[in-house]
Amino acid sequence: MDNSLVVFFRAGRLARPFCNEREIDALRISINQEGEDTLHLTFADWTAIVGYLLITLVLGLYFRRRSGQSTEDYFVSGRNVSWWLAGTSMVATTFAADTPLVVTGLVYINGVAGNWLWWSFLPSGMMTVFLFARLWRRSGLITDVQFAEMRYSGKPAAFLRGFRAVYLGLLMNCLILGWVTKAMVNIISTAMGVSDAKALAICVFFLMPFTGIYVSLGGLWGVLWTDLFQFVLKMAIVISVAWYGVHAVGGMPQLLAALAARRAAAGAGASDITALLPDFSRGFSSEALWTLPVITFVVHLAVQWWAFWYPGAEPGGGGYIAQRIFSAKDERNGLLSVLWFNLAHYALRSWPWILTALVAVVLYPGLAQPERGYMLVATRQTPHAILGILLAGFMAAFMSTVATQLNWGSSYLVEDFYRRFLKKNGSEAHYVNVSRLATVPGDCRCACGVAAWLGWRRMEDRARVRRRDGRRVFTSLVLVARECLERNLRDDGGPGDDTGAAFHLVVDRISGPSPALQRLRPGHFREDNIVHNGGNHAGLDRCHAPDASGAWRHTHQVLPESAPANHWMATRSEARRG
């Protein structure tokens, strides 16, 4: 890719919390075409992968007897877990296979400040620590869904508990498993150079059943200790990737100097990519490269942390966060576990990813799919000898998330639906066996989740097309109205037939240039648009105007690397003055 086509088209755009699978698909295609990033695993690599799988299986077998005495032992580890183990398990669960890629995309587009998309959830985490953790542990519950019948009474409370058990434990769990698995499918297909179908088969018929086996055997005890092992492995991998990436640039001083040089080349249209906060000097709603609009930052801090639901991120905890608190030895350990989780989750874990993202900005500018940067650094800048361990680290990230989802989802289905409504007087051994049976078919739930996720993405694509065309029509109508008003104010005969010609812009914005606009004078109706929202290719100047000879001009001019941001800001200012 030509490095002059930098990623200005994504500046200021709100990145999503989950990685776009179409972007990773494009990443896989481009990487395979380059032929440089497919991992060729040696015997030592396969030995590392098999060793990792054996360790997780041994941990599940070791805790089989300890977790099989009752559902309290199976789902909350007999309420005998230390704070450091429970907190580390929370951090490992939120470290999914696609998380480093998502953070890389955020930094690549919006700078370090782009991470406020998820840093903004820290207030809810602190509320859980200081207001709710002791209360959750004091309640003596096994699942947070049980709280419905503790707080309320009667049939409505029972219905609420049963509905939430099925909705969260089955439906939402399927979607979460689906997007996590889809991300792992793309990572496997990218790294190993196999098709999506083969990568999906590896996930659904091997990784998922394998995870289901050790989770069903060891219960939450097995999940907690495998999470600890997987978290250490994952952090060692991401720290190594960051270290080798910074070393490839020449060191931290050289990295910072290179970033400063790129900002200087971009001119006034770029901000400091390393800044923790948005550039407040640009105003409330202005957009720039490598920073968040201030209004977006304010919405994150004022709205998103309480309005967005995700297990463990909502105010007061919930989901697997509450499950870990229930498993703590006492209230003090419950509080400390959530405090350690928030410290590790927000203050420690993300910085190796951020460093790798900054390295990607320097080494691989102009990526159409910014999330690609992490995999490029990981596969090109690390020694080939550790590639097997690298793949094992991604497997650990995937399996730690899946393990928690299986155990947590099964606790809802068994404790809050099966035991509450279907079989109320069974023995503890019976409920433990049912819990294990509910855990094992997790690969089927994952396959359903992938299908649901892909189907939802197809519907979202169609909706996005409709929204895009609607925005184009609206923008065109605004431009027509503005042109008519300006013509009337200039006392040059009124809009006349030019109004009809200008209205053809509605068609042009959707289907291409209209010959009717040829009647406009040079420069009379000009739309300079460096499309920074992804509608057209980055760094292209699309002009709707005739040239000096009167012929129609609809050019796509490639801008030099230092020009796009300055040109974008200049044309926006010119448009306001015009």
Describe the 3D structure:
The protein is mostly helical. It has two domains: 8-440, Sodium/glucose cotransporter, CATH 1.20.1730; 465-577, no CATH class. Helix content is 67%, strand content 2%. It is built from 23 helices and four strands. It has helices at residues 21-34, 43-62, 64-67, 71-76, 83-94, 99-110, 116-119, 122-139, 147-151, 154-192, 196-249, 252-266, 294-307, 319-327, 331-348, 351-363, 372-380, 387-422, 428-439, 442-489, 497-503, 505-511, 564-577; strands spanning 540-542, 545-546, 552-553, 556-558. The chain has a two-stranded antiparallel ribbon with strand order 1-4. Strands 2-3 form a two-stranded antiparallel sheet. A hairpin with a 5-residue loop joins β2 and β3. α11 crosses α18.
